[in-house]
Design goal:
It is a single chain. This protein is an alpha/beta fold and 271 residues long. The chain is built from seven helices and four strands; from the N terminus they run βαβαβαβαααα. Helix 1 packs across helix 4 and helix 1 packs across helix 7. The C terminus is likely disordered.
């Protein structure tokens, strides 16, 4: 049963709840996105939309049938570290250091009443900041981790993968007729040039990939995979050395086998 002051249709929605109704020690999921160009066909809030939708769906799945495990989805942090997109109008980047402070202070504040905190990240440029902030917070003793919203094998930015997901989540915001192919090299190959010169020098359209063939059906499958991965990793709670939630245990030395029990001693009968 939903507590009074928590919406019956979205009991996991932090923003719509009143403070007396909030459960103590809840797991809080915080979506982290960006406001940055996504080519001529996707909106500036693409990363924030994806992160927020994954967060909401994961929170709903995690609370379904489990009133003993309170989970809350917080409002999204919609400004990130997007300096590589600064050459395009509309991009708003607060940079690494400001974002790190926002993340650190968000968790410090949440820890006054909540339990575990997980950042659900939709923008690759935020990753170095997440690593630094989560490392600091874990050193301070906070129970915090992060995970990303990725499409395995997807292109880098505003290509087929993101376009398909947005066609599923927000089709009215996608200008598919304006979509153009950009630089289709792998992100690993593009990184040195992106770091040195920014996205616009590499792709005048802002697209890193090719949105050709994007469909809502493909986006629905990709989104379902993102949510399933998020739920599985949050449930398992395993992190690597960066504080990122992972499917497999982090690498380390094999466990020490238990010591062998000594052989039973035979009692010798006295004559």
């Amino acid at each position: 049963m939903t507590s009074p002051g928590r919406p019956a249709d979205e009991p996991w929605n932090l923003a719509r709840s009143v403070w007396p109704a909030l459960p103590a020690g809840a797991l809080v999921l915080v979506p982290l996105g960006s406001t940055e160009q996504h080519g001529p066909h996707l909106p500036l809030n693409t990363d924030s939309v994806i992160a927020e939708c994954v967060t909401r769906a994961a929170a709903e799945r995690l609370t379904d049938g489990r009133p003993d495990r309170p989970v809350l989805a917080a409002p999204a942090i919609t400004y990130g570290s997007s300096g590589e997109h600064a050459g395009f109008p509309g991009t708003v980047s607060i940079g690494h250091e400001a974002l790190r402070v926002v993340l650190v202070e968000t968790v410090r504040s949440l820890s006054l009443w909540a339990g575990r905190v997980v950042f659900v990240n939709g923008h690759g440029g935020n990753v170095p900041t997440l690593d630094a902030a989560v490392r600091q917070l874990r050193d301070e003793g906070h129970d915090v981790a992060w995970l990303g919203c990725e499409v395995p094998g997807g292109d880098a930015h505003a290509g087929r993968a993101e376009t398909s997901v947005m066609l599923h989540l927000a089709p009215g915001d996608v200008l598919l007729s304006a979509a153009v192919a950009g630089d289709t090299r792998r992100l690993a190959d593009l990184m040195p040039e992106l770091t040195a010169r920014g996205v616009r020098a590499v792709s005048p359209s802002g697209v890193l990939g090719d949105p050709t063939g994007a469909t809502a059906e493909e986006g629905r499958a990709s989104f379902a995979s993102m949510v399933a991965t998020a739920v599985r990793r949050i449930d398992a709670g395993r992190t690597d050395t960066r504080g990122r939630l992972v499917d497999t245990p982090p690498p380390g030395p094999p466990p020490t086998p238990p010591a062998a029990s000594p052989a039973p001693r035979t009692r010798t009968a006295r004559p």
